[in-house]
C-alpha cells in the first residue's frame, strides 16, 4: 500500500458537509488486514492503507454513518478534542473523496 498521493486526482469533488454520507466508489475493494484496511482503487490500480482511527472511520462510513455521526463516535471513544476530531475526520473523508475512493450519496 502507498500513502495517499498528491495532488488530488478528481476534479468532481463534492464539498464535505457533516450531514453527508459517503460510500465506497465503484471499483474500490477494501480488505481488513489485522489493524489496517487495505484499499484498492481498481480503475487506477492504486493501493491505499488506513491505520489507527482511519480503520474506525472506514468501518463507520461503510455502515452508513454521516460525518457528524463518525465524529461523535470517535469523540466518545478517544480523548481527542471534538474540534480536532471533526477536522481530522473531514480531512480524511475529503482526501478519500479526492482520490475516488468514496463518493457522496443521499443522506
Quickly list its features.
two-stranded antiparallel ribbon; 36% helix; alpha+beta; 107 residues; single chain
The total count of strands amounts to: 5
Structural class: alpha+beta
Largest sheet report: 3 strands, antiparallel
Helix content: 25-40%
The general outline is globular
Radius of gyration: 13 Å
Structure description:
The chain is α+β, with helices and mostly antiparallel strands. The protein has three helices and five strands, in the order ββββαααβ. β3 (36-41) and β4 form a beta hairpin. It is globular and about 35 Å long.
In brief:
The chain is of the alpha+beta class. Helix content is 36%, strand content 24%.
Q: How would you summarize the topology of this molecule?
A:
Blueprint: E1 21-24, E2 28-33, E3 36-41, E4 46-51, H1 53-62, H2 67-77, H3 82-98, E5 102-105
Amino acid at each position: 500500500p502507498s500513502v495517499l498521493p498528491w495532488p488530488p486526482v478528481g476534479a468532481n469533488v463534492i464539498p464535505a458537509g457533516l450531514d453527508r454520507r459517503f460510500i465506497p466508489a465503484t471499483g474500490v475493494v477494501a480488505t481488513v488486514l489485522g489493524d489496517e484496511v487495505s484499499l484498492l482503487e481498481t480503475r487506477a490500480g492504486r493501493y491505499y492503507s488506513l491505520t489507527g482511527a482511519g480503520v474506525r472511520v472506514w468501518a463507520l462510513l461503510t455502515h452508513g454513518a454521516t460525518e457528524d455521526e463518525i465524529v461523535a463516535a470517535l469523540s466518545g471513544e478517544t480523548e481527542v478534542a471534538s474540534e480536532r476530531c471533526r477536522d481530522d475526520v473531514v480531512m480524511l473523508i475529503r482526501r478519500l473523496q479526492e482520490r475516488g475512493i468514496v463518493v457522496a450519496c443521499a443522506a
